[in-house]
Amino acid sequence: MNLSDRYPTKLEGVPLAKFLSMSSIWREAEEEINRAIAINLLRRKVAIDIITPSTGLSIEEVQQPQQQLNESR
Prior knowledge:
The chain is mostly helical. The chain has one domain (15-72). The chain is built from four helices and no strands. It is elongated and about 50 Å long.
């Protein structure tokens, strides 16, 4: 008996296209969450060099909402 027999994956029988679609949706949701976290940190005056490794966003991805926040003030 191998490990997959004892612990079947939840993706058994899921077509590859559907799995890839689910993965894409998950990545998009994760990116949106990270952008929201970055905006909240920017509002609290957290430095970009702390936000980027904390969220996985690039410097440019963090600077864009920072500029929007500065313009709205």
